[in-house]
């Protein structure tokens, strides 16, 4: 008989609740969980295809170890013994910098990917750390770090209460949102308009999101920072700025007008390809709205001035008084996050504490640009990366100049990959450790609850029992930590989790500010519940978090600054959260709407919002110089597909075909000028190389702009992706040589770069 089980969807940032239909151990269907406290039954095509991903026959079932140049099936012990024999010896011989770590996007969609990589990095002692963040959201982390002192203090739009929403470079109808966790984003945008609100979309493409808008502006790609600077200039010049109570908590307001003096609407309009009147009207509408939120995503981050654009988004929210205000942009308070600390000066945020070895790229948030990974492997000398640990990462497709990185990976002394597939990157590994399908894994969203538009907490245990020949994904990671630290075979994987638990409790019981001060950490550890180490760690985080029960030792849920506002008034969380209490609520626990959290979130050295930090001030002259740049005739932007997520869902038949195709979208006027035809082929060329791609003629993209989606190019020998390789597409990032980066964040410029097109017979 079929049965049902609940599971939080791990396939995008919306984190929708699913109800799975299961026959035996096979997921045969997925629908939205109508009782889920956050998603209320919403589901997208990715969630509906959960079973297809879960049962993909190309998923690896057993570890692979390279022998005699070929990857062959091996036992788990054989795989870890190979890691334990190679990496500790290399570190002893060549030092910790000889090992690099690269994390891909799927890491933030799993419990293991959130809990264990920090322990891996600590065990290795390496600074050669790369993630997908420098292909995506790192500018937002950097701007938030500089403004608020914490790179994770990212304010999200209060979608359900705002009167005016300005979206830049975002297509949440198809992406489901990013750095803004919001199930049913399309429905929330429609509700905004239904209650009389205004939606403005700024995007060079007429996306499905733009089609919902009251106003769609299609500026020249890459001009987001200039447009935002002109909006801020207009607010200041016309005395429309009204920061209200934020003025007392902000440094640099008085100097901002001078810093932005050159960015008048008239000066910016030619570079943006908008009129000065359009810019002024938008600024005035933003200022006049009862509440408003400005939100930008990947299109405003993966451009030459991504950090400045991210900074200016918060500048506008501050100038209009909408930061930290209901209906504006607010800071979430996740249940498994740190509990609020007293307001006051903090450590602040620093950039460039160390530099990459070859090109001297500054670190940001302890990460180096992933665009620099190939040169760090190729270039001889002390500190060269000779071994790589890749976790759920496919940088051969996602990073610039994949051919160069492909060749560099082939020259590594050793590589270990945690990945369910033999893909374009993991095919180079000496050891591949495959995690089980998502139905066999527990799930809690550590990362995305920090960007959620409503405070809530949910947890789902595995829907299907773990197969006998598999390891739980958390155990795979824990064993890897032991193997690279030379402890494999001498300690149980559970020792990794217990080490973390006892370390946290030792710190808490020694902290005079903690409700656990003076308690016995061993006794407290004995009170934790859970079936395994990861559940015990989750229990600890919930108990010590902002809504936690503090082991019954005092400090009401939500204790700390703003406690009266943050604490739920009634219900399960009012008694204090723990794993047991969460398990008793399988559809989750609603913790209430977002509430103001300033000044508690501030960790700057001044204890205030630092509106004009030195790195931003030093970067503004470069933006001013861009006013005189002559725009390229033709530039490229990416695009999102509703049934895709980067490179890792192209092997699921239900998620391919239809509109999810790798085509080059060209405006009819440009197609006519260049001699391109619908369905014909074109060669597209940029600094990194050229590609041959089918043409799709459409007026949904503006003139002077072409669009090619990201994550394709599944045509390399050795990968085992039967569905993806049947319609491989081309890798858009091969058009880039990796030299063009946003200097503050190290983020690769993936949008708005010049290209040339020629028709092919």
TrEMBL record:
GO MF term list: 4 iron, 4 sulfur cluster binding; metal ion binding; molybdopterin cofactor binding; oxidoreductase activity
The protein's name: Molybdopterin-binding oxidoreductase
Transmembrane region(s): none
Any coiled-coil regions, as ranges: none
InterPro entries: Asp_de-COase-like_dom_sf, MoPterin_dinucl-bd_dom, Mopterin_OxRdtase, Mopterin_OxRdtase_4Fe-4S_dom, Prok_molybdopt-oxidoreductase
Domain (4Fe-4S Mo/W bis-MGD-type) ranges: 2-58
Assigned keywords, A-Z: 4Fe-4S, Iron, Iron-sulfur, Metal-binding, Oxidoreductase
Disordered, as annotated region: 510-531
Pfam families: Molybdop_Fe4S4, Molybdopterin, Molydop_binding
CC annotations in GO: membrane
Top-level taxonomic group: Bacteria
């Amino acid at each position: 008989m079929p049965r049902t089980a609940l599971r939080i969807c791990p396939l995008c940032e919306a984190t929708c609740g699913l109800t799975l239909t299961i026959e035996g151990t096979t997921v045969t269907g997925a629908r939205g969980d109508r009782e889920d406290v956050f998603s209320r039954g919403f589901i997208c095509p990715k969630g509906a295809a959960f079973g297809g991903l879960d049962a993909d026959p190309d998923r690896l079932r057993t570890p692979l170890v390279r022998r005699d140049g070929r990857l062959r099936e091996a036992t788990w012990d054989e795989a870890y013994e190979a890691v334990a024999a190679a990496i500790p010896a290399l570190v002893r011989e060549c030092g910790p910098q000889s090992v690099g770590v690269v994390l891909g996007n799927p890491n933030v969609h799993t419990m293991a990917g959130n809990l264990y990589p920090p322990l891996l990095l600590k065990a290795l002692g390496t600074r050669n750390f790369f993630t997908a963040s420098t292909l995506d959201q790192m500018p937002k982390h950097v701007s938030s770090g500089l403004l608020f002192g914490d790179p994770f203090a990212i304010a999200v739009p209060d979608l359900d209460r705002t009167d005016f929403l300005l979206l830049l470079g975002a297509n949440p109808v198809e992406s489901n949102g990013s750095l803004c966790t919001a199930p049913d984003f399309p429905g929330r945008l429609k509700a905004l308009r239904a209650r009389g609100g205004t939606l403005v979309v700024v995007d060079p493409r007429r996306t499905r999101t733009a089609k919902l808008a009251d106003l769609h502006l299609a500026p020249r790609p890459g001009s987001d920072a200039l447009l935002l600077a002109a909006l801020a200039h207009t607010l200041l010049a016309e005395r429309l700025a009204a920061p209200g109570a934020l003025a007392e908590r902000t440094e640099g307001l008085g100097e901002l007008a001078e810093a932005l003096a050159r960015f008048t609407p008239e000066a910016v309009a030619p570079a943006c390809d908008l009129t000065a009147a359009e810019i002024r009207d938008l600024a005035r509408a933003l200022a006049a709205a009862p509440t408003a939120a400005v939100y930008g995503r990947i299109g405003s981050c993966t451009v030459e001035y991504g950090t400045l654009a991210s900074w200016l988004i918060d500048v506008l929210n501050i100038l209009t008084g909408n930061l930290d205000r209901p209906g504006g942009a607010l800071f979430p308070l996740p249940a498994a996050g740190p509990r609020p600390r007293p307001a006051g000066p903090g450590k602040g945020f620093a950039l460039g504490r160390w530099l990459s070895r070859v090109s001297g790229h500054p670190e940001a948030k302890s990460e180096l640009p992933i665009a620099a990974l190939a040169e760090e492997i190729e270039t001889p000398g002390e500190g060269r990366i000779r071994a790589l640990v890749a976790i759920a990462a496919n940088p051969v497709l996602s990073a610039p100049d994949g051919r160069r990185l492909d060749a560099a990976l082939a020259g590594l002394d050793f590589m270990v990959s945690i990945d369910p597939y033999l893909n374009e990157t993991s095919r180079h590994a000496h050891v591949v450790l495959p995690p089980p399908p998502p139905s066999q894994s527990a799930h809690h969203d550590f990362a995305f609850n920090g960007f959620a538009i409503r405070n809530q907490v949910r947890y789902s245990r595995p829907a299907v029992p773990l197969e006998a020949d598999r390891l739980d994904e958390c155990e795979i990671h824990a064993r890897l930590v032991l193997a690279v630290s030379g402890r494999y075979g001498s300690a149980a994987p559970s020792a990794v989790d217990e080490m973390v638990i006892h370390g946290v409790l030792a710190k808490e019981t020694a902290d005079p500010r903690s409700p656990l001060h003076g308690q016995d950490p061993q006794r407290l550890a004995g009170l934790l519940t859970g079936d395994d180490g990861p559940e015990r760690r989750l229990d600890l985080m919930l108990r010590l978090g902002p809504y936690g029960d503090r082991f019954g030792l005092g400090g009401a849920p939500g204790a700390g600054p703003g406690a009266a506002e943050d604490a739920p008034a009634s219900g399960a969380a009012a008694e204090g959260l723990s794993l047991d209490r969460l398990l008793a609520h399988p559809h989750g626990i609603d913790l209430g709407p977002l509430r103001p959290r300033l000044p508690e979130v501030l960790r700057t050295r001044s204890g205030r919002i630092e509106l004009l930090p030195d790195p931003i001030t030093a970067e503004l002259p470069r933006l001013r110089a861009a006013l005189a740049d002559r725009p390229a005739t033709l530039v490229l932007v990416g695009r999102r597909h509703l049934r895709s997520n980067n490179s890792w869902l192209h092997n699921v038949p239900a998620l391919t075909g239809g509109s999810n195709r790798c085509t080059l979208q060209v405006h009819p006027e440009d197609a006519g000028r260049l001699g391109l035809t619908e369905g014909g082929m074109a060669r597209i060329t940029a600094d990194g190389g050229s590609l041959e791609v089918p043409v799709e003629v459409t007026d949904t993209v503006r003139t002077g702009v072409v669009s090619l989606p990201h994550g394709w190019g599944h045509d390399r020998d050795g990968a085992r992706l039967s569905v993806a390789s049947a319609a491989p597409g081309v890798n858009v990032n091969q058009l880039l040589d990796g030299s063009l980066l946003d200097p503050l964040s190290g983020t690769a410029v993936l949008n708005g770069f010049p290209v040339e097109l020629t028709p092919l017979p």
